[in-house]
Design brief:
Radius of gyration of chain B: 22 Å
Distance between the termini of chain B: 43 Å
CATH superfamily of the largest domain in chain A: P-loop containing nucleotide triphosphate hydrolases
Structural class of chain B: mainly alpha
Number of domains of chain A: 2
Largest interface: A-B, 74 and 42 residues
Helix content of chain B: over 70%
Distance between the termini of chain A: 44 Å
Pfam family, one (chain A): ABC_tran
Helix content of chain A: 25-40%
Number of helices of chain B: 14
Keywords (chain A): ATP-binding, Nucleotide-binding, Repeat, Transport
Number of strands of chain B: 2
Number of strands of chain A: 24
GO molecular function, one term (chain A): ATP binding
Strand order of the largest sheet of chain B: 1-2
CATH topology of chain B: ABC transporter involved in vitamin B12 uptake, BtuC
InterPro entries (chain A): AAA+_ATPase (IPR003593), ABC_carbohydrate_import_ATPase (IPR050107), ABC_transporter-like_ATP-bd (IPR003439), ABC_transporter-like_CS (IPR017871), P-loop_NTPase (IPR027417)
Protein name (chain A): Sugar ABC transporter ATP-binding protein
Oligomer: heterodimer
Chain lengths: 503, 341
């Protein structure tokens, strides 16, 4: 069943990872010369789909046809040979090489083994002219170019490979609005020449501007295939992307006492170029959520509150006492605990046993005159492990071997053991399966019930909306909305975020 | 990047209860080194017979091991903390020269012998302080900062000594180091005491725990509230202090202070540390392993000397030992489930 005029057809693509089904029967067809948008929420399978197309992942099942012929994309080189070029989110250009060298990276032009740099420079100049960027010299080092310039180089590389399909993974994420306009002009020129584009973005407004048809993924499955952009409302798209509910089960919790004292107060925080004039207050037992896109400044706001980043202006108080700016040690001493976004690289000693990760902030307490009393330390860790329902409940196990959910519980246990007044959570359930998710919510809620102030950032809107009492919507480094969480829904947050980012 | 990005596929799934994922015991790890040392001794026994088995010969091996041993113990701290110190050999030379100059330029006999030792240690610690501040606060890569210190300290040593060896004429100093309490030379005692103190520091104190944490994951340690930069400086100061002390020990062994003392010691020390089982990327360190590593290399040296074999041949064997040790280490690092050494 190959549709007419389709350059690429994918049917029933399945890809397993250990413990997860990333793609569970995805269909996609892309016509020559169109901009085909792929939409989907966190975990919907977009990145996996791209990697299948790029030859980086082999599907476990499913058929791929190009021009009506069945093909197997066995490697990145095979993908390029089939005319599929991928532009990844993290621009894959080599900063130390020139524009021309980057464009021909991996398929250098040569005569008898000697690279013909003259020919490559001429070809690159032609390609750049074709893309409308004559101002970029093929001899410039790519490191000197802006993100937009690097994207043009990436695009020129795709064209130099005679790509017939270019996959663009969130190309606008690194661009400002003017650069996005340039990108769209280039995309239109390229598609006019018959090249197909798969365009991935979360900015629905962009998709409306540039897209021809849309395929929506949800939980690894196609929920809408090739629907025309013009006849589909934004609201319809959001519903297609987000229609689910059982995934997020929040334990019931009492309302925060109206007379609860402020625990954390942040006034007029800014970090130049990242976010400005952010003020928050969190009362004892309150959960406050920050909603916004990655890159909106939300993670940086958390880092600044925890002292991991020095604020340009503004101060933070915990229980009325000011924190020393830019000092994590001072924040931790005041009882501010951060569970960072990147658990593995920012949170854990992966090769150390579990108990040492639980006591990482508090081990000095189990020491007399600098000498550790490891028995007391392990007893304290055992108590936490029991309370956390850690699985397996083995304090000596190497932390690396635990699942994401259990690793997150270890981080929570660290702050429980240290005793914290403010718990700061960045993406608390990223990479955590549904069962462990509910347990983590319970732990957080239980901690709030003891009077701890909780500040949470999550890309999963239902999570941040369902867990929080108060929501701050962050867009482009500014708080664009503050209000009770039950008075706002996902659609409204997305609208606010998009308005804020466009401004 | 933008919001709602896909999560990475779960790459580390856990097979519950199938195997015990515990750290390989340090005892088991060191057992391998002890066996290697015993094998070396057997080789020594077969090739050099009585000359190797002689009690004095073992004292010679220990005496030979003591100076590089103290340097290696200091290096263990830096490497466990995720750094590297290439300047130890030069700092040793500089400390020896500084101390011997101080002694020779003052009227002989006026200098208390302990002042000589303290001077050497202080010079070493000061060098470590400079390197540590450059690395922790100046954000210079450890390799580069200590490479600069290595070159500069050697140059300074040459200027101070005018490239001449300076005989140390402080009789109490020599008397102290040439005494043999309980039958072992003082140098060996110094090494053993330094190693014992280092073991306690690394394994039984909050300082040691911080060292392992910083070396294992500096960012996680910082976010957990550990003063990572101050701790890093402290590690380089310890390493410098040990190099300085080794400088004083070197004067005792050779009776002179010289700008050529300790050349290439940085490589010997790193080799001993790595062979001992300390991870070069940091986060795991073993003092016992380092001591065994030092003993393996000094025994090797002794066997080659007794058999009148060339230094060059010895270097080849040394190289082979380093490679084998690191290969074994990687094997076990990749298999966290294994419980063998």
């Amino acid at each position: 069943m190959v549709s007419d005029g389709a350059f690429l057809t994918m049917r029933g693509i399945v890809k397993h990872f250990p413990g997860a089904r990333a793609l569970d029967g995805v269909d996609l067809d892309v016509r020559a010369g169109e901009v085909h948008c792929v939409l989907g929420q966190n975990g919907a399978g977009k990145s996996t789909l791209i990697k299948v197309l790029a030859g980086a992942h082999q599907p476990n099942a499913g058929d791929i046809h190009i021009d009506g012929h069945p093909v197997a994309i066995t490697s990145p080189v095979a993908a390029l040979r089939l005319g599929i070029a991928t532009m990844y989110q993290e621009l894959d250009v080599v900063d130390g090489l020139t524009v021309a060298e980057n464009v021909f990276l991996g398929h250098e032009l040569s005569t008898a083994g000697v690279s013909s740099s003259g020919a490559m420079i001429r070809r690159t100049r032609d390609l750049l002219a074709q893309l409308g960027h004559r101002e970029i010299s093929p001899r410039t080092e790519v490191g000197n170019l802006s993100a937009a310039g690097k994207q043009i180089v990436s695009m020129a590389r795709a064209l130099s490979r005679q790509a017939r399909l270019i996959v663009m993974d969130e190309p606008s994420a690194v661009l400002d609005s003017e650069e996005v306009a340039t990108l769209f002009r280039v995309v239109r020129e390229v598609t006019a020449a018959g090249v197909a584009i798969i365009y991935i973005s979360h900015r629905l407004e962009e998709i409306r501007q540039i897209g021809d048809r849309i395929t929506v993924l949800k939980n690894g499955q196609t929920v809408a295939i090739g629907i025309p952009v013009e006849q589909t409302s934004t609201r319809e798209l959001i519903t297609l992307m987000t229609g689910r509910s059982e995934e997020y089960v929040f334990p019931p919790r009492p309302a925060v006492a109206p007379d609860a004292p402020d625990v954390l107060v942040a006034e007029g925080l800014s970090v130049p170029g990242i976010f400005e004039d952010v003020s928050l207050r969190i009362r004892a037992g309150e959960i406050v959520g920050l909603a916004g896109l990655v890159g909106s400044g939300r993670s940086e706001i958390l880092e600044t509150i925890c002292g991991a980043r020095r604020a340009g202006t503004g101060r933070v108080w915990v229980d009325g006492a000011p924190l020393r700016p830019g000092s994590v040690t001072s924040a931790v001493a005041a009882g501010v605990g951060l569970c960072p976004e990147e658990r593995k690289s920012q949170g854990l000693l992966l090769d150390e046993p579990v108990y040492r990760n639980i006591t990482l902030s508090s081990f000095a307490r189990f020491a007399r005159g600098g000498f550790l009393d490891e028995l007391r330390e392990r007893r304290a860790a055992d108590r936490q492990i029991a309370g956390l329902q850690l699985h397996p409940a083995d304090p000596s196990r190497v932390t690396r071997t635990l699942s994401g959910g259990n690793q997150q519980k270890i981080l929570l246990g660290r702050w429980l053991e240290h005793g914290c007044r403010v718990l700061v959570l960045d993406e608390p359930t990223r990479g955590v399966d549904v069962g462990a998710r509910a347990e983590i919510y319970q732990l957080i809620v239980a901690l709030a019930a003891t009077g701890t102030a909780v500040l949470v950032v999550s890309s999963e809107l239902p999570e941040v909306l369902g867990m929080s009492d108060t929501i701050h919507v962050v867009a482009d480094g500014r708080v664009v909305h503050t209000g009770p969480a039950h008075e706002i829904d996902e659609h409204r947050v997305l609208d606010l975020v998009m308005e804020g980012e466009a401004a | 990047m933008s919001a709602f990005t896909d999560p990475v596929p779960p790459d580390e799934t856990v097979r519950e209860g199938t195997r015990r994922y515990t750290l390989p015991g340090s005892l088991a790890r060191n057992l391998g080194l002890v066996i290697a040392l015993l094998v070396l001794c057997a080789v020594g026994w077969f090739t050099a017979d009585v000359r190797f088995l002689d009690g004095d010969n073992f004292v010679t091996i220990l005496r030979f091991a003591s100076v590089i041993g103290v340097v290696s113990v200091g290096m263990t701290f830096v490497i466990t903390g995720g750094g590297i110190d290439l300047s130890v050999g030069s700092v040793l030379g500089l400390s020896s020269v500084w101390a011997s100059t101080l002694a020779t330029q003052t009227i002989a006999g006026d200098v208390h012998w302990l002042v000589v030792v303290f001077t050497a240690c202080a010079v070493g610690a000061a060098c470590g302080l400079v390197s540590g501040i450059l690395i922790a606060y100046g954000k210079v890569v450890a390799f580069i900062a200590t490479l600069a210190m290595m070159v500069a300290a050697r140059g300074l040593a040459e200027i101070i000594s005018n490239k001449r060896s300076q005989i140390l004429d402080v009789p109490p100093f020599m008397d102290f180091f040439q005494s043999r309490p309980l039958g072992l030379p003082t140098l060996v005692w110094v090494f053993l005491i330094v190693a014992a103190m280092a073991w306690v520091l690394l394994n039984r104190t909050t300082f040691g725990r911080r060292t392992i944490a910083v070396g294992g994951n500096a960012e996680a340690s910082r976010l957990a509230g550990i003063r990572v930069r101050a701790h890093t400086v402290a590690l380089y100061v310890i390493c410098g202090f040990c190099s300085g002390l080794a400088g004083a020990m070197m004067i005792a062994r050779t009776t002179v202070g010289s700008s050529t003392h300790g050349s290439l010691y940085e490589l010997d020390a790193i080799a001993a540390v790595v062979v001992g089982g300390t991870l070069l990327i940091g986060g795991r360190g073993t003092i016992v392993g380092t001591v065994l590593g030092v003993l393996i290399f000094s025994t090797l040296n002794n066997i080659f000397t007794l058999n009148n074999l060339s230094i060059s041949a010895q270097s080849i064997v040394k190289g082979a030992i380093i490679v084998i040790a690191v290969l074994l280490q990687q094997r076990f690092a990749n298999r966290p489930g294994s419980s063998s050494p």
